[in-house]
Write a structure and sequence with these properties.
Its EC number is 2.7.7.65. It catalyses: 2 GTP = 3',3'-c-di-GMP + 2 diphosphate. Pfam families: GGDEF. This is diguanylate cyclase. It is a single chain. This protein has 12 helices and 5 strands. The chain is an alpha+beta fold and 382 residues long. It has a 5-stranded mixed sheet, sandwiched between helices. Strand 4, helix 12 and strand 5 form a beta-alpha-beta unit. The longest helix is centred in the middle third of the chain and has 38 residues. The chain is elongated and about 95 Å long. Bound molecules: guanosine-5'-triphosphate (GTP).
Protein backbone atom coordinates (compact mmCIF):
# COMPACT_ATOMS: atom_id res chain seq x y z
CA UNK A 1 0.00 0.00 0.00
CA UNK A 2 1.20 3.52 -0.74
CA UNK A 3 1.03 6.17 2.02
CA UNK A 4 -2.00 7.63 0.22
CA UNK A 5 -3.74 4.21 0.30
CA UNK A 6 -3.16 3.93 4.04
CA UNK A 7 -4.63 7.41 4.56
CA UNK A 8 -7.68 6.58 2.42
CA UNK A 9 -8.12 3.30 4.24
CA UNK A 10 -7.95 5.15 7.53
CA UNK A 11 -10.59 7.64 6.37
CA UNK A 12 -12.86 4.93 4.95
CA UNK A 13 -12.80 3.09 8.30
CA UNK A 14 -13.59 6.40 9.95
CA UNK A 15 -16.64 6.98 7.76
CA UNK A 16 -18.05 3.51 8.50
CA UNK A 17 -17.48 4.16 12.21
CA UNK A 18 -19.28 7.51 12.00
CA UNK A 19 -22.36 5.83 10.60
CA UNK A 20 -22.39 3.23 13.33
CA UNK A 21 -21.68 5.77 16.03
CA UNK A 22 -24.59 7.88 14.84
CA UNK A 23 -26.84 4.79 14.84
CA UNK A 24 -25.88 4.09 18.46
CA UNK A 25 -26.43 7.70 19.50
CA UNK A 26 -29.84 7.67 17.80
CA UNK A 27 -30.70 4.46 19.67
CA UNK A 28 -29.50 6.10 22.88
CA UNK A 29 -31.74 9.13 22.32
CA UNK A 30 -34.70 7.02 21.23
CA UNK A 31 -34.57 4.65 24.20
CA UNK A 32 -34.52 6.93 27.21
CA UNK A 33 -34.04 3.76 29.17
CA UNK A 34 -31.85 2.64 32.03
CA UNK A 35 -29.49 1.04 29.50
CA UNK A 36 -26.09 2.48 30.33
CA UNK A 37 -23.06 2.79 28.10
CA UNK A 38 -24.80 3.42 24.77
CA UNK A 39 -23.80 7.10 24.82
CA UNK A 40 -20.13 6.21 25.31
CA UNK A 41 -20.30 3.59 22.55
CA UNK A 42 -21.89 6.19 20.27
CA UNK A 43 -19.32 8.92 20.96
CA UNK A 44 -16.30 6.59 20.67
CA UNK A 45 -16.43 6.06 16.88
CA UNK A 46 -16.90 9.79 16.34
CA UNK A 47 -13.61 10.28 18.17
CA UNK A 48 -12.02 7.69 15.87
CA UNK A 49 -13.32 9.66 12.88
CA UNK A 50 -12.04 12.96 14.25
CA UNK A 51 -8.69 11.25 14.72
CA UNK A 52 -8.70 9.92 11.14
CA UNK A 53 -9.53 13.41 9.85
CA UNK A 54 -6.67 14.95 11.83
CA UNK A 55 -4.21 12.36 10.53
CA UNK A 56 -5.56 13.07 7.04
CA UNK A 57 -4.63 16.74 7.50
CA UNK A 58 -0.99 15.92 8.19
CA UNK A 59 1.25 18.46 6.48
CA UNK A 60 -1.51 21.04 6.44
CA UNK A 61 -1.83 21.62 10.19
CA UNK A 62 0.92 21.79 12.85
CA UNK A 63 2.45 18.36 13.34
CA UNK A 64 2.20 18.60 17.15
CA UNK A 65 -1.56 19.02 16.80
CA UNK A 66 -1.79 15.95 14.55
CA UNK A 67 0.38 13.97 16.93
CA UNK A 68 -1.35 14.85 20.19
CA UNK A 69 -4.85 15.32 18.78
CA UNK A 70 -4.87 12.29 16.47
CA UNK A 71 -3.36 9.86 18.93
CA UNK A 72 -5.26 11.33 21.89
CA UNK A 73 -8.56 10.91 20.06
CA UNK A 74 -7.71 7.35 19.09
CA UNK A 75 -6.91 6.49 22.70
CA UNK A 76 -10.03 8.39 23.78
CA UNK A 77 -12.11 6.29 21.37
CA UNK A 78 -10.89 3.04 22.91
CA UNK A 79 -11.28 4.35 26.46
CA UNK A 80 -14.83 5.54 25.69
CA UNK A 81 -15.66 2.07 24.28
CA UNK A 82 -14.24 0.51 27.44
CA UNK A 83 -16.25 2.92 29.62
CA UNK A 84 -19.39 2.10 27.61
CA UNK A 85 -18.91 -1.64 28.04
CA UNK A 86 -18.16 -1.21 31.72
CA UNK A 87 -21.37 0.76 32.27
CA UNK A 88 -23.43 -1.56 30.10
CA UNK A 89 -22.28 -4.48 32.24
CA UNK A 90 -22.90 -2.48 35.45
CA UNK A 91 -19.28 -2.61 36.49
CA UNK A 92 -17.66 0.18 38.52
CA UNK A 93 -15.86 2.75 36.38
CA UNK A 94 -13.17 5.33 37.16
CA UNK A 95 -11.83 7.72 34.58
CA UNK A 96 -8.63 8.83 36.28
CA UNK A 97 -6.35 5.81 35.57
CA UNK A 98 -7.20 5.99 31.89
CA UNK A 99 -6.93 9.74 31.59
CA UNK A 100 -3.62 9.70 33.48
CA UNK A 101 -2.31 6.96 31.19
CA UNK A 102 -3.41 8.94 28.14
CA UNK A 103 -1.78 12.15 29.40
CA UNK A 104 1.51 10.36 30.10
CA UNK A 105 1.48 8.68 26.73
CA UNK A 106 0.86 11.98 24.91
CA UNK A 107 3.64 13.65 26.91
CA UNK A 108 6.11 10.96 25.82
CA UNK A 109 4.93 11.35 22.21
CA UNK A 110 5.52 15.11 22.37
CA UNK A 111 8.97 14.73 23.91
CA UNK A 112 10.08 12.15 21.36
CA UNK A 113 8.74 14.27 18.55
CA UNK A 114 10.11 17.72 19.34
CA UNK A 115 12.96 17.20 21.85
CA UNK A 116 14.51 13.84 20.87
CA UNK A 117 12.70 12.92 17.64
CA UNK A 118 12.39 9.14 17.43
CA UNK A 119 9.49 7.43 15.68
CA UNK A 120 10.30 4.09 17.29
CA UNK A 121 9.88 5.33 20.86
CA UNK A 122 6.64 7.04 19.88
CA UNK A 123 5.33 3.88 18.22
CA UNK A 124 6.35 1.70 21.13
CA UNK A 125 4.72 4.05 23.65
CA UNK A 126 1.50 4.59 21.77
CA UNK A 127 0.99 0.94 20.73
CA UNK A 128 1.68 -0.27 24.29
CA UNK A 129 -0.76 2.22 25.83
CA UNK A 130 -3.42 1.19 23.34
CA UNK A 131 -2.69 -2.47 24.06
CA UNK A 132 -3.20 -1.77 27.78
CA UNK A 133 -6.67 -0.31 27.11
CA UNK A 134 -7.65 -3.09 24.69
CA UNK A 135 -6.42 -5.85 27.01
CA UNK A 136 -8.49 -4.36 29.85
CA UNK A 137 -11.49 -4.29 27.52
CA UNK A 138 -10.93 -7.91 26.47
CA UNK A 139 -10.67 -8.96 30.12
CA UNK A 140 -13.83 -7.09 31.08
CA UNK A 141 -15.79 -8.75 28.27
CA UNK A 142 -14.35 -12.16 29.00
CA UNK A 143 -15.05 -12.08 32.74
CA UNK A 144 -18.36 -10.23 32.86
CA UNK A 145 -19.84 -10.39 29.33
CA UNK A 146 -22.45 -12.96 28.36
CA UNK A 147 -23.39 -14.45 25.01
CA UNK A 148 -22.06 -14.40 21.48
CA UNK A 149 -21.99 -10.62 21.18
CA UNK A 150 -19.71 -10.22 24.20
CA UNK A 151 -17.47 -12.96 22.79
CA UNK A 152 -17.36 -11.16 19.43
CA UNK A 153 -16.33 -7.92 21.09
CA UNK A 154 -13.85 -9.77 23.29
CA UNK A 155 -12.29 -11.47 20.24
CA UNK A 156 -11.94 -8.09 18.51
CA UNK A 157 -10.13 -6.75 21.56
CA UNK A 158 -7.83 -9.76 21.86
CA UNK A 159 -6.98 -9.41 18.17
CA UNK A 160 -6.29 -5.70 18.50
CA UNK A 161 -4.18 -6.20 21.63
CA UNK A 162 -2.11 -8.80 19.76
CA UNK A 163 -1.59 -6.59 16.71
CA UNK A 164 -0.64 -3.63 18.91
CA UNK A 165 1.88 -5.62 20.91
CA UNK A 166 3.48 -7.12 17.80
CA UNK A 167 3.64 -3.64 16.22
CA UNK A 168 5.14 -2.15 19.39
CA UNK A 169 7.92 -4.73 19.47
CA UNK A 170 8.47 -4.87 15.70
CA UNK A 171 9.22 -1.17 15.58
CA UNK A 172 12.87 -1.87 16.54
CA UNK A 173 13.31 -3.98 13.38
CA UNK A 174 11.16 -2.29 10.78
CA UNK A 175 11.26 1.44 11.59
CA UNK A 176 13.92 4.12 11.58
CA UNK A 177 13.92 7.08 13.98
CA UNK A 178 12.60 9.26 11.12
CA UNK A 179 9.94 6.88 9.74
CA UNK A 180 6.72 8.65 8.72
CA UNK A 181 3.31 7.65 10.09
CA UNK A 182 1.77 6.45 6.84
CA UNK A 183 4.89 4.94 5.32
CA UNK A 184 4.07 1.36 4.29
CA UNK A 185 7.09 -0.02 6.12
CA UNK A 186 5.78 -3.57 6.38
CA UNK A 187 2.72 -5.78 6.34
CA UNK A 188 2.39 -5.51 10.12
CA UNK A 189 2.18 -1.72 9.81
CA UNK A 190 -0.62 -2.00 7.24
CA UNK A 191 -2.44 -4.50 9.47
CA UNK A 192 -1.87 -2.16 12.43
CA UNK A 193 -3.45 0.84 10.67
CA UNK A 194 -6.30 -1.24 9.26
CA UNK A 195 -7.04 -2.89 12.60
CA UNK A 196 -8.17 0.33 14.27
CA UNK A 197 -11.21 0.85 12.08
CA UNK A 198 -11.95 -2.86 11.84
CA UNK A 199 -11.97 -3.53 15.57
CA UNK A 200 -13.98 -0.38 16.35
CA UNK A 201 -16.50 -1.66 13.81
CA UNK A 202 -16.58 -5.11 15.42
CA UNK A 203 -16.96 -3.49 18.83
CA UNK A 204 -19.91 -1.47 17.59
CA UNK A 205 -21.59 -4.48 15.99
CA UNK A 206 -21.04 -6.39 19.24
CA UNK A 207 -22.44 -3.45 21.22
CA UNK A 208 -25.56 -3.30 19.06
CA UNK A 209 -26.03 -7.07 19.42
CA UNK A 210 -25.58 -6.85 23.19
CA UNK A 211 -28.14 -4.06 23.31
CA UNK A 212 -30.68 -6.00 21.21
CA UNK A 213 -30.13 -9.07 23.41
CA UNK A 214 -30.80 -6.88 26.44
CA UNK A 215 -34.02 -5.62 24.82
CA UNK A 216 -35.13 -9.18 24.00
CA UNK A 217 -34.63 -10.27 27.61
CA UNK A 218 -36.37 -7.15 28.88
CA UNK A 219 -39.43 -7.69 26.66
CA UNK A 220 -39.51 -11.36 27.54
CA UNK A 221 -39.45 -10.44 31.23
CA UNK A 222 -42.24 -7.90 30.76
CA UNK A 223 -44.33 -10.46 28.88
CA UNK A 224 -43.94 -13.15 31.51
CA UNK A 225 -43.82 -11.31 34.85
CA UNK A 226 -46.33 -9.43 36.94
CA UNK A 227 -45.40 -5.78 37.21
CA UNK A 228 -46.54 -5.25 40.80
CA UNK A 229 -45.14 -8.31 42.52
CA UNK A 230 -42.34 -9.39 40.16
CA UNK A 231 -43.51 -13.03 40.16
CA UNK A 232 -44.63 -14.87 37.01
CA UNK A 233 -47.89 -13.73 35.45
CA UNK A 234 -50.80 -16.07 34.86
CA UNK A 235 -49.89 -16.90 31.24
CA UNK A 236 -46.29 -17.79 32.06
CA UNK A 237 -47.44 -19.80 35.07
CA UNK A 238 -49.91 -21.74 32.89
CA UNK A 239 -47.06 -22.63 30.52
CA UNK A 240 -44.97 -23.94 33.43
CA UNK A 241 -47.93 -25.99 34.71
CA UNK A 242 -48.49 -27.49 31.23
CA UNK A 243 -44.80 -28.43 31.10
CA UNK A 244 -45.04 -30.03 34.55
CA UNK A 245 -48.13 -31.96 33.44
CA UNK A 246 -46.31 -33.19 30.33
CA UNK A 247 -43.47 -34.45 32.57
CA UNK A 248 -46.07 -36.17 34.73
CA UNK A 249 -47.52 -37.93 31.68
CA UNK A 250 -44.19 -38.98 30.21
CA UNK A 251 -41.97 -39.54 33.24
CA UNK A 252 -44.52 -39.84 36.06
CA UNK A 253 -42.86 -36.93 37.86
CA UNK A 254 -45.59 -35.62 40.21
CA UNK A 255 -46.42 -32.03 40.97
CA UNK A 256 -48.77 -30.13 43.28
CA UNK A 257 -50.61 -26.85 42.91
CA UNK A 258 -51.01 -24.49 45.86
CA UNK A 259 -53.75 -21.96 45.16
CA UNK A 260 -53.50 -19.08 47.64
CA UNK A 261 -55.91 -16.24 48.24
CA UNK A 262 -55.22 -13.29 50.55
CA UNK A 263 -57.83 -13.13 53.31
CA UNK A 264 -60.18 -10.15 53.58
CA UNK A 265 -58.07 -8.19 51.19
CA UNK A 266 -60.91 -5.87 50.32
CA UNK A 267 -60.81 -4.59 53.90
CA UNK A 268 -57.17 -3.52 53.47
CA UNK A 269 -58.02 -1.61 50.33
CA UNK A 270 -61.05 -0.03 51.96
CA UNK A 271 -59.27 0.92 55.18
CA UNK A 272 -55.81 1.92 53.92
CA UNK A 273 -56.27 2.62 50.22
CA UNK A 274 -55.23 0.80 47.06
CA UNK A 275 -51.59 1.81 47.26
CA UNK A 276 -51.24 0.19 50.67
CA UNK A 277 -53.09 -2.78 49.18
CA UNK A 278 -50.54 -2.93 46.36
CA UNK A 279 -47.65 -2.87 48.81
CA UNK A 280 -49.34 -5.62 50.85
CA UNK A 281 -49.61 -7.79 47.71
CA UNK A 282 -45.95 -7.23 46.87
CA UNK A 283 -45.03 -8.17 50.45
CA UNK A 284 -47.16 -11.33 50.33
CA UNK A 285 -45.50 -12.34 47.04
CA UNK A 286 -42.00 -11.76 48.47
CA UNK A 287 -42.82 -13.75 51.61
CA UNK A 288 -44.25 -16.64 49.61
CA UNK A 289 -41.23 -16.64 47.32
CA UNK A 290 -38.88 -16.81 50.30
CA UNK A 291 -40.82 -19.75 51.73
CA UNK A 292 -40.70 -21.81 48.53
CA UNK A 293 -37.84 -23.96 47.30
CA UNK A 294 -35.70 -22.84 44.37
CA UNK A 295 -37.30 -25.53 42.21
CA UNK A 296 -40.85 -24.27 42.89
CA UNK A 297 -42.57 -21.67 40.75
CA UNK A 298 -44.67 -18.84 42.10
CA UNK A 299 -47.09 -16.84 39.97
CA UNK A 300 -49.83 -14.29 40.40
CA UNK A 301 -53.00 -16.05 39.38
CA UNK A 302 -55.40 -13.11 39.66
CA UNK A 303 -56.00 -9.97 41.75
CA UNK A 304 -55.12 -11.21 45.26
CA UNK A 305 -54.63 -14.84 44.28
CA UNK A 306 -51.24 -16.54 43.90
CA UNK A 307 -50.35 -20.02 42.79
CA UNK A 308 -47.29 -22.13 43.48
CA UNK A 309 -46.28 -25.02 41.27
CA UNK A 310 -44.41 -27.50 43.45
CA UNK A 311 -42.63 -30.10 41.36
CA UNK A 312 -41.66 -33.56 42.54
CA UNK A 313 -44.05 -33.28 45.50
CA UNK A 314 -46.39 -35.82 47.02
CA UNK A 315 -49.38 -34.79 49.17
CA UNK A 316 -47.36 -34.83 52.39
CA UNK A 317 -44.63 -32.52 51.09
CA UNK A 318 -47.10 -30.17 49.41
CA UNK A 319 -49.18 -29.94 52.56
CA UNK A 320 -46.22 -29.22 54.81
CA UNK A 321 -44.92 -26.54 52.39
CA UNK A 322 -48.36 -24.92 52.29
CA UNK A 323 -48.60 -24.97 56.11
CA UNK A 324 -45.20 -23.28 56.36
CA UNK A 325 -46.24 -20.56 53.92
CA UNK A 326 -49.46 -19.97 55.84
CA UNK A 327 -47.55 -19.66 59.12
CA UNK A 328 -44.87 -17.38 57.67
CA UNK A 329 -47.52 -14.87 56.67
CA UNK A 330 -49.56 -15.25 59.85
CA UNK A 331 -46.47 -14.51 61.97
CA UNK A 332 -45.75 -11.22 60.20
CA UNK A 333 -46.65 -7.92 61.84
CA UNK A 334 -47.62 -4.72 60.03
CA UNK A 335 -44.62 -2.67 58.95
CA UNK A 336 -44.20 0.91 57.72
CA UNK A 337 -44.56 -0.14 54.14
CA UNK A 338 -47.37 -2.66 54.12
CA UNK A 339 -49.95 -4.23 56.42
CA UNK A 340 -49.62 -7.91 57.28
CA UNK A 341 -52.00 -10.38 55.64
CA UNK A 342 -52.92 -14.01 55.99
CA UNK A 343 -53.72 -16.43 53.18
CA UNK A 344 -55.96 -19.42 52.69
CA UNK A 345 -54.48 -22.21 50.59
CA UNK A 346 -56.05 -25.00 48.57
CA UNK A 347 -53.66 -27.83 47.72
CA UNK A 348 -54.07 -30.46 44.99
CA UNK A 349 -51.62 -33.11 43.82
CA UNK A 350 -51.69 -34.55 40.29
CA UNK A 351 -53.04 -38.09 40.08
CA UNK A 352 -53.80 -40.90 37.65
CA UNK A 353 -57.24 -39.46 36.91
CA UNK A 354 -55.92 -36.11 35.64
CA UNK A 355 -55.80 -36.03 31.83
CA UNK A 356 -55.09 -32.27 31.91
CA UNK A 357 -53.75 -29.85 34.49
CA UNK A 358 -57.21 -28.21 34.55
CA UNK A 359 -58.63 -30.94 36.78
CA UNK A 360 -55.79 -30.50 39.31
CA UNK A 361 -56.45 -26.79 39.29
CA UNK A 362 -60.17 -27.33 39.78
CA UNK A 363 -59.46 -29.46 42.86
CA UNK A 364 -57.08 -26.83 44.28
CA UNK A 365 -59.79 -24.21 43.70
CA UNK A 366 -62.40 -26.31 45.52
CA UNK A 367 -59.98 -26.87 48.41
CA UNK A 368 -59.34 -23.13 48.62
CA UNK A 369 -63.05 -22.53 48.78
CA UNK A 370 -63.26 -24.93 51.72
CA UNK A 371 -60.34 -23.21 53.47
CA UNK A 372 -62.16 -19.88 53.17
CA UNK A 373 -65.42 -21.37 54.36
CA UNK A 374 -63.70 -23.00 57.35
CA UNK A 375 -62.52 -19.61 58.66
CA UNK A 376 -59.50 -18.59 56.43
CA UNK A 377 -55.76 -18.53 57.33
CA UNK A 378 -55.56 -22.29 56.83
CA UNK A 379 -54.66 -25.05 54.37
CA UNK A 380 -56.98 -27.65 52.88
CA UNK A 381 -55.76 -30.60 50.82
CA UNK A 382 -58.11 -31.71 48.05
N1 LIG B 1 -54.75 -2.83 45.83
C1 LIG B 1 -55.09 -3.81 45.00
N2 LIG B 1 -56.26 -4.47 45.19
C2 LIG B 1 -56.56 -5.48 44.35
C3 LIG B 1 -55.73 -5.85 43.29
N3 LIG B 1 -56.32 -6.87 42.62
C4 LIG B 1 -57.48 -7.13 43.27
N4 LIG B 1 -57.63 -6.29 44.31
C5 LIG B 1 -58.74 -6.19 45.28
O1 LIG B 1 -58.81 -7.38 46.00
C6 LIG B 1 -60.11 -7.42 46.59
C7 LIG B 1 -60.63 -8.83 46.60
O2 LIG B 1 -61.79 -8.82 47.34
P1 LIG B 1 -62.70 -10.07 47.52
O3 LIG B 1 -62.72 -10.90 46.26
O4 LIG B 1 -64.02 -9.57 48.00
O5 LIG B 1 -61.99 -10.93 48.57
P2 LIG B 1 -61.42 -10.62 50.02
O6 LIG B 1 -61.78 -9.27 50.52
O7 LIG B 1 -59.97 -10.91 49.93
O8 LIG B 1 -62.12 -11.67 50.90
P3 LIG B 1 -61.89 -13.22 50.95
O9 LIG B 1 -61.15 -13.63 49.72
O10 LIG B 1 -63.25 -13.81 51.00
O11 LIG B 1 -61.11 -13.47 52.18
C8 LIG B 1 -60.98 -6.46 45.78
O12 LIG B 1 -61.29 -5.32 46.57
C9 LIG B 1 -60.08 -6.06 44.63
O13 LIG B 1 -60.29 -4.69 44.23
C10 LIG B 1 -54.53 -5.13 43.11
O14 LIG B 1 -53.72 -5.39 42.21
N5 LIG B 1 -54.23 -4.14 43.98
Amino acid sequence: MTPLDLRSFNLFGGLVCTTMGLVLLAVRLHFRSPVQGLGHWGVAPLMAVASALLFGLEGRVPSALVLVGGNGLLLGCNIAMLAGTSRFLHRPWRWWPWLTGTALCLLVLLCFSSVWPDYRVRMMTFASTMAWVCAAHARLLWVHGRGLSARLMGAAMVWQTGVLLVRAVATWWIDRPDTQRFEPVSVIHTVYVGTFGFSVMLLLVGGLLMFSEYLRQRFEHLATHDDLTGVLNRRALATRIDQAHARWQTQRQPYALLLMDVDHFKRINDALGHQAGDRALARVAATLQQGLRASDTLGRYGGEEFMALVTGADAELALSLAEQLCQRLAQQADDDQAPACTVSIGVAVVGAGDPQSDSVLARADAALYQAKAAGRNRVVLA
